[in-house]
């Protein structure tokens, strides 16, 4: 006779749940921890930690119906009260899944578990709705802050999230004033959100006024994020000298860790304004300050050299990347392919494209579209046809404008049956506008 399996204790269940990687098996294990037990045994005593583990496992796996089953079961527990952080996790799971209504329902349900809601869960809900781009829901919660029914006291984090949801600078200013009226001390994140919004609209004078105000009125020093926002906006506005001054200001503050993002932005701007000779000095400064060039830095240089048609320098940059242990990514190669195509050097573009797998970088849809466009622009419709076949095999399609140019060019040379078959394949994927068929005098009917 086979020996009876050892009973699973609440402690043993915790251990098994931690080790179980399959969320579906974990769900069934939780529901029936002792499958061989008799029906007259006492109910299993689940711990609060066991509920936390299974709910988070199911939430991360987006097994929401199963997660709700466990929540219903937990709601009937009387031996413990669930903690608010668990509900914050549930709200976040729904937010990441773009399910704002479910996130709101999870928040509304918290009191039914005898758990008190605080600004922590409210802020989590706000963030979830913002992630879902449910701006109407965010505004509704903002209006509810003024009611006593909500029972939540907003904090700086609350207003930081609300500021991120603002669609106009006027709304952001109004929110900031409301924050002050509630005697809520703004944080560096508050000012960072305001300055980032101003920089996005290139309202640089206002952005610098906010920067001065945070120092003088609140004794809050700008962080790297604020400086980076300002420097990017200055570079975009071609106010490079001011950007360099801010960079030097950062160097004087030992509390700030000047990173490669700032240097990469400045390098890109130097190329754009025709001051590429100063790039070497910036790279030396990076080395002196212990900032290692990363993929963004090298891609900024590659883009600059491509714009200046200095392709030898482009490949020198690629070699330098390899020496420094920085692997070129698909963006790097797409930039070079686009540069070659712009100069009608389609053979060089095609060679690099075909060499990408050897360089351990797989072409993406942008790679194919860029090369296809370049071949069509150069009148190399035979080569473009080959790339189109490969694109379709990989599930990619060119843009509608590229298809039109391709059809016109190939029609002038005399369309082929393989071309018509490819066009039918594109039509199935809605990549061909109806009037394109008229160019070749054909009609698309049921994919044939």
UniProtKB/TrEMBL annotation:
Any one cellular-component term (Gene Ontology): mitochondrion
PPR repeat positions? 223-253, 259-293, 294-328, 329-363, 364-398
Q: Which Gene3D superfamilies match?
A: Tetratricopeptide repeat domain
Task: List, alphabetically, the Pfam families matched.
Answer: PPR_2 (PF13041)
Q: Which domain of life is it from?
A: Eukaryota
Q: Which GO terms describe its biological process?
A: mitochondrion organization; RNA processing
GO molecular function terms attached to this record: mRNA binding
InterPro entries annotated for this entry? Mito_RNA_Proc_CCM1, PPR_rpt, TPR-like_helical_dom_sf
Transmembrane found in the keyword field: no
UniProt keyword list: Repeat
Protein name stated in the entry: Pentatricopeptide repeat-containing protein At1g53330
Instruction: Please name the source species.
Output: Dioscorea cayennensis subsp. rotundata
